[in-house]
Amino acid sequence: MNKQPFLYIRGLRKSEYTVFVVSDGQKKYFDPVFRVNVPFSSGQQVKRQIIETLLSILNKEPAPVTFYFDAPKLQEREVTTPADPNYVDLLIGGWMVSLKGGETKTLKRRSPLSISALHPLHPLLSGLNNENITFDRSDRPHIHKVIVRNDKGEILSEEEINKLLAGSDRSLSRKWIPDNTRASGLFVYDIAIDLRTLFCVSTNKLEPELSPQMEEKLKSNGWIETKNVFGNCLLAPKEMRNEIINALAKALINWRITSNQSRTFSLMETIAMAISDNANKIAFSIRAELSETTERPSAIPVIDETSGANLFLTPLVSSIIPGFSGTADALDKAEKFLINYLNSFDYEKQEFIN
What is the spatial distance between Cα 113 and Cα 197, in angstroms, rounded to a whole number? Predict the structure, then answer.
């Protein structure tokens, strides 16, 4: 069977009492089938973490970003990048540059990576817990300072504060942050890689990805003129491709959400990975099934070695699925598989090397 120019990856991870995002608390959505709220991390966040890991491995900085504001009210306007594929984060992550006034054409490159949210393997295999937390220093009164001001901004004396609190059970020495949601369970993420556009940047003038100036710059820097199914394009030099392939394979497996709070840190360890050029096969290989042994609806995780996908199981698999055992070098083998697959594609001829 001939290989397809798409590669699909599914990773299964375990999360323990953590939060995927800090700014607005743990994200969640309502599952209408099993009627439960389930936690998730957006595909955009997963993509960002993968690219940050990729840049860290390559020891490269991300592309610069320009923020535009309109005077005199300083209204926020465009946020642009240089639309330069020499920056690895732009080549892999894509870009869109559209300036106010239409003085230049909009430049848009779709990322060759399509990335799902990090979501529960099954709605019944994840959970949300709430807790109230505090960040005060009430156990050390000598460093815990409380200031109360009146409507004029004047600081009240200790006597005035005591009068204000008289007859009330209000305490000013504790600072609570209520209803902090934490996520636990088994989570999967899916990635599709389009090898046809992975290192090729289109030179189509009707739907431009590059400015004429950037196109000439890339040619002078050794980018190769070639074609893919979408038309004429410029291909990254081989040395650059090889460097990125090795780092990308590692990043796709070893990325971590680094924005979760330290008090709720979870390793989010990988239990299993499935890789195939057929999307259905990775869905079949790591899935969940409803259990028939309990009165209330429940689900159990399933690893299917007959799915046809390439499976890589870590030793942690035996802790959640009886009868399965993994190997300590499973993720190293998955990384090598990815490198070999990505290297087996002839990006100049747009075909696999026999």
Answer: 9
CA–CA distances in Å: residue 352 to residues 3, 179, 195, 224, 237: 7, 53, 10, 18, 18
| Res 25: pLDDT | 66
Instruction: Tell me if the pTM is above 0.90.
Output: no
Write out the two tokens for 64.
């610069």
User: What is the C-alpha separation between 153 and 131, in angstroms, rounded?
Assistant: 34
Residue 91 half-sphere exposure, CB side, CA atoms within 13 Å? 23
CB 183 within 8 A of CB 127: yes
38-47 mean pLDDT: 92
The neighbouring-strand residues paired with 76 are: 69
Helix then strand then coil, % of the chain, to nearest 5:
25, 30, 40
Q: Where are the domains of the chain?
A: 6-133+181-352, 136-174
Which of these ranges, 15-19, 191-195, 227-231, 275-279, has the smallest mean pLDDT? Answer: 15-19
Across 212-232, b (16+ Cβ under 10 Å) vs e yields eebbeebeeeebbeeebeeee
Identify whether the C-beta of residue 174 lies closer than 8 Å to the C-beta of residue 134: yes
